[in-house]
Design goal:
Layout (H helix, E strand, L loop, with lengths): L10 E4 L3 H12 L4 E4 L11 E4 L2 E4 L5 E2 L3 H6 L2 H4 L1 E3 L3 E6 L2 E6 L19 H16 L2 H5 L6 H7 L4 H16 L8 H13 L2 E4 L5 H8 L6 E2 L4 E5 L2 E4 L4 E3 L2 E4 L3 H7 L8 E11 L9 E4 L6 E4 H4 L9 E8 L6 H13 L7 E13 L12 E3 L2 E3 L9 H21 L1
Parallel strand pairs: 1-2, 1-14, 2-10, 7-16, 14-21
Antiparallel strand pairs: 3-4, 5-9, 6-9, 7-8, 11-12, 12-13, 15-18, 15-19, 16-17, 17-18, 20-21
Helix pairs in contact: 1-13, 4-8
Length: 415
């Protein structure tokens, strides 16, 4: 895009995560003079990738879903060089590992769908109805369902308590970052739909390539890194270095905790914390790009990232990602390594930990009733957006930023 004017901005957007990037892009395209300020040294918020000794380490295990409407609208997927996961999971249950995959995409999965192999005939029927409904009903219908917990929704769908405990809860715990399935069923149905209709992938250059591509679309001079905001003022924002940046409109697009600090009185949900460990090994413990989930709850999930995207590690090295609920506690890394030996059926004592990330508030706690979208207006000329104002997903963050820009421009037009 063309160079941006250095005159006083019409709007300041605080935070260059996905919501802030989407908002800033839409405001720029509408002809606004925009400044996007970011406290850190790079864009993306929680969606960043570190390069370390030849490894690509995402800040917490993340996957990229190609079916989200905002993703289709805003991103050049070909340029991301996406590498797909297997359309299914390996679940380690109390009776051993079982494989559950989408038979429409993987022919070998049909055998597992014979009654009694993995799921009972009752569970297979219930799952088929659930898949068909969430795949083909219009989104507006799914959004109108009465909200309750995901646990209640799965039970009401006719799935047995055993299938939920052994397969669905271990998988969904990694999606929601909580193991009680208390997350909004509305959100569950939308996520389930996106997984059925899309493909879970990793960009060849790490998930940080997604916000980086969005940022490349900003005009020159819009983005200012290493520019933390101390407070909002009646006339704009005050930067931590003491400089005031005046603007008629301010959009707070930070994480929930920072937004609550900048906007006293703002109610924000609790957040879910997750820790991801990265290990390097000489040989891959699993030679396929498949997510492994653990019904014991010792780990949320694990996968060999280099089987998905070989670019994540130096040639000849396997990179394994493993996530657990909560913060990194004393002894956790050793317990994880022991559990990985059991899950992969291999010796892990020679594996080398090359990184670990604890991500606080990685997702909002989306307990029912959870509004799938809410206004970004909080005061005249003041707006707030982020995934916690919509849904805890790439789609939710981008949609909330889109709504902030739309509401801001509407208010400017009415003035």
């Amino acid at each position: 895009m063309t160079s941006h004017s250095h005159s006083t901005p019409d709007s300041v957007v605080v935070g260059s995560g996905l919501a802030g990037l989407a908002c800033a892009l839409d405001l720029c395209r509408a002809g606004q003079r925009v400044v996007l300020v970011e406290a850190s040294d790079g864009v993306g918020g929680r969606m960043r990738t570190d390069r370390r000794n030849g490894f690509l380490l995402d800040r917490g295990f993340q996957v990229f879903n190609t079916s989200y409407p905002q993703v289709k609208r805003r991103l050049n997927l070909r340029e991301l060089r996406l590498r797909p996961f297997t359309p299914g999971v390996i679940a380690h249950t109390s009776t051993g590992p079982v494989r559950l995959a989408d038979p429409t995409r993987q022919r070998s999965a049909w055998g597992a769908l014979l009654p009694g192999r993995v799921l009972s005939a009752q569970d297979l029927l219930a799952l088929g109805v659930l898949l068909a409904r969430d795949a083909f009903l219009p989104t507006r219908v799914l959004k109108q369902y009465p909200d309750r917990s995901t646990a209640s929704a799965l039970s009401e769908a006719g799935l047995s308590a055993q299938s939920v405990a052994e397969i669905f809860k271990p998988f969904l715990s990694g999606v929601f970052l909580e193991d009680k399935l208390e997350t909004s069923a509305r959100f569950f149905h939308l996520v389930w739909r996106s997984m059925i209709r899309g493909t879970l992938c990793l960009p060849a250059d790490g998930v940080g390539a997604v916000p980086a591509q969005l940022a490349d679309g900003l005009p020159d001079g819009v983005l200012r890194l290493n520019a933390p905001v101390d407070m909002l003022t009646p006339d704009g924002v005050l930067l931590s270095d003491g400089h005031e940046l005046p603007a008629a409109s301010v959009v707070v697009a930070t994480d929930a905790a920072a937004a609550a600090r900048l906007l006293p009185g703002l109610t924000v949900p609790d957040g879910r914390t997750v820790t991801t460990y990265y290990h390097a090994a000489e040989r891959p413990p699993l030679t396929e790009p498949t997510l492994v989930v653990d019904s014991s709850g010792s780990v949320l999930n694990t996968c060999v990232l280099t089987q998905v995207a070989p670019t994540y590690a130096p040639p000849g090295t396997a990179l394994i990602s493993t996530s657990v609920l909560g913060a990194d506690r004393l002894g956790s890394a050793d317990r994880v390594l022991r559990r990985l030996s059991e899950l992969y059926g291999t010796e892990t004592s020679s594996w080398r930990q090359v990184g670990s990330y604890t991500v606080e508030r990685a997702l909002p706690a989306m307990e029912p009733p959870w509004p799938l979208s809410r206004t970004t207006r909080i005061a005249p000329g003041r707006y707030v957006c982020g995934d916690y104002r919509a849904t805890g997903s790439v789609q939710g963050a981008l949609a909330s930023g889109t709504r902030a820009a739309r509401e801001l421009l509407s208010d400017v037009a009415s003035r």
